[in-house]
Design goal:
With about 400 residues, the chain is of the alpha/beta class. It has 16 helices and 10 strands. Helix 3 (about 50-65) packs across helix 4, helix 7 (about 150-160) packs across helix 8 (about 175-190) and helix 13 (about 300-305) packs across helix 14 (about 335-345). The structure holds zinc ion.
Length: about 400
């Protein structure tokens, strides 16, 4: 088995279809160029049958963006697949991605189909898509809430019909990591022709497990991961691309697979999406949050100033972020205060620093973050306090 994991980005399809994350066509095209710079293997550019606007954006991306495979999503319906092909046919490497549910709850309650009928439709539609392009992906929707043996039957049939990627969708974010890994192993053991297709997964984050489930799937042999920048997507979102990629990178010793992502584009990719959607990621978001490389507590700051490896497992610069931030707040220590004052050109004697530190601590009790402007005043007051004119907080001695 290859040790290369393909990164399939669906920010423009699954991500874009979530509330508040709609993008205009020009924004989608710019994002697709950004994703190509990021080095994703596949861009799912949209769902051409969903609206004329979606069709136009997918068509433009297919014509303009070079490098990654450009995929369009289509229901397992001939007219959708025809339209999808129309939109992506000018791509350097076009892919039709079609899907049909495999769970009884979806088949019975939503589509009124029997398992046998659904399987026949899936393989017929894969065959139809293969009439257009040799690169066809099939997803059993809601696979993780389906009978595993039925999922295997469907996969064997669609691979026989020409599917080159099969994508196990945890559509409702229901799976647990160890169980999902077992499902992938089961599929590899029970689908006779599985070696003829790339095994992919698509995980949702309803229980906060999308990245963990994706990593468990990789360990069990999945070699394509569907994910979104900043973890956006339906409901609680999809697996976050930057988290997955950094887990594979930082813990390469553990996962032992490669990927093709240009790490220094991770933060620019995240920032462009936040700018386009107007929705910022939470400050404590892994990898790309404002606090991901910020340290406030004295012990951590002291360690960071001595050697960044003490409290950081990856470098901010490597992923295109500005760098570590030592935030001065009430938990910070004298060492960090001195370093910041020096950076601002404020060189204090030990006595002045001691007074300034007292002033800093008392201000930090009132302010969440002490700014550079505050520090200039704190240093000045420290000097005066050392001269016996003021106390450290700036009160005049009487
Ligand atoms: Zn999805």
């Amino acid at each position: 088995m290859t040790d290369y994991v393909k990164i399939f980005d669906t920010t423009l399809r699954d991500g874009e279809q979530s509330p508040g994350f709609a993008l205009t066509s020009p924004q989608k095209v710019e994002r697709a160029h950004q994703l190509a710079r990021l080095g994703v293997d596949v861009i799912e550019a949209g769902f051409p049958a969903a609206s004329p606007d979606d069709f136009a954006a997918v068509e433009r991306i297919a014509r303009e963006v070079r490098g990654p495979v450009i995929a369009g999503l289509a229901r397992a319906v001939a007219a959708d697949i025809d339209q999808c092909w129309e939109a992506i046919k000018d791509a350097q490497r076009p892919r039709i991605h079609t899907f049909l549910s495999s769970s009884d709850i979806h088949l019975e309650a939503q589509f009124n189909l029997k398992r046998e009928q659904a399987k026949t439709r899936a393989l017929e539609m894969v065959r139809h898509a293969r009439g257009y392009t040799p690169d066809v992906e099939f997803s059993p929707m809601d696979a993780t809430r389906s009978d595993w043996s039925y999922v295997c039957e469907v996969l064997e049939a669609v691979i026989d019909a020409g599917a080159t990627t099969v994508n196990i969708a945890d559509t409702c974010g229901f799976a647990q990591p160890d169980e999902f890994g077992m499902m992938i192993t089961y599929i590899r053991e029970h689908v006779g022709n599985i070696e003829n297709a790339t095994l992919s997964v698509h995980c949702h984050n309803d229980l906060g497990l999308a990245v963990a489930n994706s990593l468990a799937a990789i360990r069990a042999g999945a070699r394509q991961i569907e994910c979104c920048v900043n973890g956006i997507g339906e409901r609680a979102g999809n697996a976050a691309l930057e988290e997955l990629v950094m887990a594979l990178t930082v813990r390469r010793d553990h996962h032992r697979v490669k990927h093709g992502i240009n790490l220094d584009e991770l933060v620019p990719a995240s920032e462009l999406l936040q700018q386009f959607t107007g929705i910022a990621v939470q400050p404590n978001k892994a990898i790309v949050g404002l606090n991901a490389f910020a340290h406030e507590s004295g012990i951590h700051q002291d360690g960071m100033l001595k050697d960044a490896r003490t409290y950081e497992i990856m470098s901010a610069a490597a992923i295109g972020a500005e760098g570590t931030r030592l935030v001065l707040g009430k938990h910070s220590g004298r060492h960090a205060l001195r370093r910041r004052l020096e950076e601002l050109g404020l060189l204090l004697t030990q006595d002045e620093l001691n007074h300034a530190f007292a002033g800093f601590k008392s201000l930090a009790d009132y302010k969440k973050e002490v700014t550079d402007e505050d520090l200039v005043l704190i240093a000045e007051n420290g000097r005066r306090a050392a001269d016996g004119v003021f106390d450290a907080i700036g009160h005049v001695y009487r």
